[in-house]
Design goal:
By secondary structure, the chain is an alpha+beta fold. The protein contains seven helices and 27 strands. Strand 16 and strand 17 form a beta hairpin.
Length: 422
């Protein structure tokens, strides 16, 4: 069944166009936090059950504390009290009187009573309790969205994705201003509806398998309106005669509308709409999983302190720019330049490219993976991307020009090799 991309309305807000508009503006720098540039992170989805549980917990909190509801507290922008009533921006696209039979439900993946958006240039720490010395449980990057449950003594209790905790309220915008910004920055994402899914070099099952992606990640949709003319232009620009061998072009043109192009790590891949779900998403907080001194796999071998230090050092650059061919951790780097500079800081020298780095490292199995290992990705047997394992099933990598240095699931793509430097 085909899924057409259509316009939708956020509950309680004005109409939002399906066009993907990048965020603009520098925001406010969080002076007490480490200086990292804002980026888009691919983050965990809101779960209605989790939201309901948290709402019940908040209700009990308010009753126990016998304090006024937090929606009576003006926010720092001077907009006064928050909006009342629950907002769930789940919308039926086919509610239009002009709907066609091919139109399907389309959802904005965000649930909130009071919307908050991180108004920072780099990132905002989410802490376990409202205290600057409290444990960091997550990070909200620039323009990340959250549900604000209460604001008290300069701190806001929030939920963003599966991250729950407290942030400095002065670094959030809320209510009408937050909703206005949300209209500009919500982006179209695809989530795999199967455990793993093959992605193709062209929009047809006749084409070769480029890679496998998983349900653990949300993937940016680069093109959702694929037509015959669009494919012809794409082939002329990016494909060789070898890429077209065995492909029924007329069949591909006829079925074009059932495919989308994803852009993952600056690589173009195609996937059928039949196996993905679409949502318009705000960025959300990423859970910070602290590396442990035990193996990331099942072998029980311990991580060295050096490996943990490497992961900690790499995390300092979360959110910084991606620049193809770059090697600067602060001014812009690509994937191989990133891991090269991280290891260089500790006296280990790696080759410049991801392919050469894969050849220079010792292979380890997924059951033996540990913090500091390198995950290599690509198509077929050709490596073209590398990431650093930071523990907890997560990697940090210089992903692409839109997302910069980000955290992902280690298996957001199928790794071709896991390599060990030390």
């Amino acid at each position: 069944m085909r899924k057409n991309i259509v316009k939708f309305f956020a509950a309680g807000a004005a109409a939002i166009s399906c066009a993907v508009i990048p965020a603009t503006g520098t925001g406010t720098v969080v002076t007490e936090e480490k200086h990292l540039a804002g980026i888009t992170l691919a983050l965990e989805k809101y779960c209605d059950t989790v939201i309901a549980d948290i709402a019940n917990e908040e209700k009990k909190d308010r009753e126990a504390e016998e304090e006024p509801d937090s929606t009576d507290i003006p926010d720092k922008t001077g907009n006064g009290a928050a909006n009342t009533g629950s907002k769930k921006t789940t919308v039926k696209a086919n509610s239009s009187p002009n709907k066609t039979e091919t139109e399907e439900e389309f959802k904005l993946n965000l649930v909130y009573d009071r919307l908050g958006v991180a108004n920072v240039h780099n990132y905002l720490n989410v802490r376990k309790s409202p205290d600057e010395s409290s444990k960091i449980v997550g990070k909200m990057t620039r323009n990340s969205g959250c549900n604000v449950y209460k604001i008290r003594n300069g701190w806001a209790k929030i939920v963003s994705g599966k991250v729950r905790g407290w942030v400095k309220a002065e670094y959030l915008i809320t209510d009408e201003k937050a909703e206005a910004r949300a209209k500009r920055i919500a982006t179209l994402r695809a989530t795999v509806s199967t455990e793993t899914l093959n992605v193709r070099t062209l929009p047809t099952i006749d084409s070769g398998i480029y890679d496998q992606i998983s349900a653990d990640e949300e993937y940016r949709v680069a093109e959702d309106n694929i037509t015959e003319n669009w494919i012809k232009r794409y082939i002329a620009k990016y494909c060789s005669k070898k890429d077209l061998r065995g492909i029924d072009l007329e069949k591909m043109y006829k079925d074009a509308g059932n495919w989308v192009m994803l852009k993952i790590d600056e690589e173009r891949m195609f996937v059928s709409k039949d196996f993905i779900d679409f949502t318009y998403n705000l960025n959300r907080a990423v859970t910070i999983k602290q590396p442990s001194h035990t193996s990331g796999g099942s072998s029980g071998s311990g991580n060295s302190q050096a490996s943990l230090s490497i992961a900690d050092y790499a995390m300092q650059f979360l959110g910084n720019r991606y620049v193809w061919g770059g090697t600067s951790l602060t001014n812009g780097t690509d994937c191989s330049g990133f891991v090269m500079r991280i290891y260089e800081h500790f006296g280990y020298y790696l080759p410049r490219t991801s392919r050469a780095q894969a050849a220079a490292t010792k292979s380890v199995s997924s059951s033996d993976v540990q913090v500091g290992d390198l995950f290599f990705y690509g198509s077929g047997s050709t490596v073209n991307h590398v990431a650093l394992y930071i523990g907890g099933g997560q990697i940090i990598h210089a992903s692409n020009s839109r997302d910069g240095i980000k955290i992902s699931s280690a298996y957001y793509r199928q790794p071709l090799k896991i390599g060990r430097v030390m």
